[in-house]
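ARCHIVE CARD
Drawer: 12
Card no.: 0347
Subject: one protein chain, sequence and derived structure
Cross-reference: see card 0346
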Amino acid sequence: MTSVQVPDETVAQLQRVAQAEGRSVDELVGEGLAAYLASRGKLDALRVAIDEGDASGVAEDSSLAGILAEARVRRGQPPSKP
């Protein structure tokens, strides 16, 4: 078992909610922490994707056709015809 310091007001709120839902405070805390960690993982992945996008040098206002044409040139493929 692990213990953490939580403000008394927060514990009181948890107790009221747990009682209203017929659950234990431990269940609510575990569920809340799991949700926080999942959310944080998604935010971390989003930050990585944003950083990779920024590092790619592709401007936000670039057209898809232009981006694809540039990618094809970099790969040595001929540009596609419209």
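Annotation on reverse: The radius of gyration is 25 Å. DSSP finds three helices and no strands in the chain.
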